[in-house]
Amino acid sequence: MASAAGPLSRITRIAGPALLPAMAYGAYKGGAAGAIEAFFTGPGRTSRIMALVVVLVNWKSLPLAWTYRVFNGMVSHLLVRPCHTYTPDKLFQPVKTETHVTLLEVDYNIHKSNSTYFADLDVSRTHLVGHLLAQGCRALSNNASTKLVPDPSDPSRPAKGAFNIILGGVQCSFKKELKPYQRYEMWSRILSWDRKWMYIVTHYVEKNAVKPGSGPEDWEKKIHASAVSKYVFKVGRLTVHPAVLIEASGLLPERPGGWVNDESSVGKLSKTANGGANGHVELDAAESPAWDWKQIEDERKRGLEYAVHLASLDGLLNRFDPGEDGPLGTFGPG
């Protein structure tokens, strides 16, 4: 699979934040001409160079850096780069995002703070969806023309409103600490989907632990954390079935005999098709594509066995208990 981060992305990811001090200093001096030279040679250069080093090694934790990292992924995949064309056998394949632990992410235990994993997840998920599902995202963003999502009140018209991707929840399991400035990789892929949510699994993996062509290994020693996130897709106020986005991206094979929606399964093959009682249509081996609908559906169900545990947390709001006489105490600063 092609890398999700090209040379241009790598350059802008590092050079952009690194040049900000020089540009700011040049603007302060009254112009951009000679700004870089003045930055490295003018009075006070030692403190400026030290500040630049701090920015270079910690930039991902600086103000607005998270916004830059996320928008870099959205803009580069959805607006700048051409859409990739993948076949259905790539639907559950991962993308890799590389990063490192900054000093500002370290907690009092001298390792990466648990809370900072979630900011990294935002970036990794953006690259996955933007890269793998670019065709579908662009089609839904232009729903007025593509008419992928009809208006419920008048199916002959497209639904109105902007296309949005909304995070509904994250669950993360921490296995092994990440030390200051340690480099690591985030491997994200589609785990499953249901009538509303798309579930994405992300593994935080030791740098260079995955070798090209490597098979099953003792990942327990090389994975630092694993997380499951759920996304909902919207056009205006309407929820878009994840399968619509996936199919618009060219990643769903033909569904022999059609399929029906019910409360327990999405993409369930119709039992009226020429298949067995399980609803699957058996294809002749010579006619089967690289991945047929049965394989996609079987993999989706395997992933859903894990995803349902995150989905079940939605019911926790019914377990909220403010106490008989209110909280035992109110504290700050929060």
UniProtKB/TrEMBL annotation:
Any one Pfam family match given in the protein's UniProt record, by short name: 4HBT_2
InterPro entries cross-referenced by the UniProt entry: HotDog_dom_sf, THEM6_lcsJ_thioesterase
Family: Belongs to the lcsJ thioesterase family.
Protein name per the record: Capsule polysaccharide biosynthesis protein
